[in-house]
Amino acid sequence: MVALIMFATAIASLIQFDKTVNVVSLDNHIFSKVQQNSTQNGCDLYFGKWIYDTSYPLYTEENCSLIGDTFTCAKYGRKDSKYKNWRWQPHQCDLPRFNGTTLLEKLRNKKLIFVGDSLIRNQWRSLMCLIEPYLPPTTNKTLVLEENLKKLYVEDYNATIGFYWSPFLVESNHDNKGFHGPRVHIVRINSIVKHGRHWSDADILIFDTFVWWSPNMTILWGSFDSPDAVYQNVDSSQRPYEIALNTWSEWLEYHINRNKTRIFFTSASPISFGKSRWGTNLGCYNVTEPRSNDTNWGTHPKLSLKAVESVIENLKEKGVKVDYLNITHLSGYREDAYLSIYIKDYKNWGLKLRNPAKSDCRHWCLPGVPDIWNQFLYAYIIKP
Q1: Residues 6+ apart with CB under 8 A from 225
Q2: Hey, what's the signal peptide range on this chain (predicted)?
Q3: Which residue among 74, 139, 150, 181 has its CA within the 20 to 30 Å range from the CA of 23?
Q4: Helix, strand or coil for residue 91?
């Protein structure tokens, strides 16, 4: 008990529009050491522009049976559709166009798992929709739920594509799947084994964690069941976030088969902050075109992004490679593509359908921006 208290006390210590209205170009590139290494045959995939392309989207909301009911903007009343038609074009190369058959062949006899919060679930649902048109007709599309893991098994390829709910990666009081109760975050920042045992046999892992790390939270030293556990309230999540990332990286270092498992980390999805935790009508509500400048760049979590990049570099030095899907800045121009008011009415969150002041400016409509994140993922996976 004394040791726990002492330990807890110690811890407390330019984008622009091109001349044509159909192109948004990222010219003031933000470089980092990790970002410079995020290349495809020497080309930085994240240095480019948004181009309006009527050959997109690659699937439709109504024809994807695996989309769920959270990211379905058209279902909940969105009438405009231009937000679906933008694709990302790197300046010095082309992103390979998504081909589900090619990906399924790469996933033959393999398990791919997304791990993290609702933004990585957004990305997982996107991948399911991208791949569904290529599934064999005999595929059982029923999703199987095993504790926090929801997965699709494609029998013809002996492939599993799943999502594991773990919003902090480490243990927390929000690990109960689908939990949307009081926003009191209690996190065991040095404990991950409970979750990690569900990932250790995966061939491809895609992680994220950011959106749940609020300024005011409680750190738990000890277990939830222990009467000797110490609960420490903190008013900044940055240092706990860094410790949790180190816990995650140490788990990877000692539990992942480096000759088998490919690891990815999706950077923080940008958020349009406003009067409520979901944003405001001054943010994403009624936006129908990509922004001509990144009005939210000042609110992007630069310290958190830096912490992730630092951990990835340290893992590289230890022989554990993590590919960084650096989607934050390029996604920040797409305020036209958030869920906004077109959401399911979660009464226990106090959200009122079509209330602009409660617009969801965190999550994305599908089809939409997460499809591009998955094109980055696809480019890495199919690379020889």
Answers
A1: none
A2: 1-20
A3: 74
A4: coil
Contact by Cβ (8 Å): 268, 262: no
Q: Which two tokens stand for residue 22?
A: 């159909």
Q: How far apart are CA 155 and CA 172, in angstroms?
A: 34
Q: Are 266 and 206 in contact (CB under 8 A)?
A: yes
Beta bridge partners of 26: 15
For residue 84, which amino acid is it?
K
Amino acid found at 44: D
DSSP state at residue 346: -
Measured distance CA(205)–CA(284) in Å, rounded: 31
Phi-psi region of 364 (alpha: psi -120 to 50; beta: other; left: phi over 0): beta
For 122-150, give one letter per residue: b (16+ CB within 10 A) or e.
bbbbbbbbbbbeebeeeeeeeeeeeebbb
In angstroms, rounded to a whole number, what is the distance separating the alpha carbons of residues 73 and 317? 43
**Residue in the structure block whose two tokens are 């609110």:** 299
Q: What is the pLDDT of residue 242?
A: 97
Q: Are strands 171-172 and 23-26 parallel, antiparallel or unpaired?
A: unpaired
Of 152, 180, 153, 154, nearest to 167 by C-alpha is 180
Q: Is the pLDDT of residue 30 over 50?
A: no
Q: pLDDT tens, 283-294?
A: 688 899 998 765
pTM across the whole model: 0.88
Asked if 17 and 24 touch (Cβ cutoff 8 Å), the reply is yes
- DSSP secondary structure code for residue 296 in this structure: T
DSSP string, 354-368: T-GGG-EEEEE-SSS
Radius of gyration of the chain (CA): 20
Q: Which two structure tokens, joined as six digits, stand for 46?
A: 């994240």
Q: What are the pLDDT digits (tens) for 196-253?
A: 999 999 999 999 999 999 888 999 999 999 999 999 999 989 999 999 999 999 999 9
The pair of three-digit structure tokens given for residue 355, joined into one six-digit string = 């209330």
Active site residues: 118, 360, 363
CA atoms within 13 A on the CB side of 251: 21
Given a cut of 80, is residue 40 above it in pLDDT? no
What SS3 state is found at 181?
A: coil
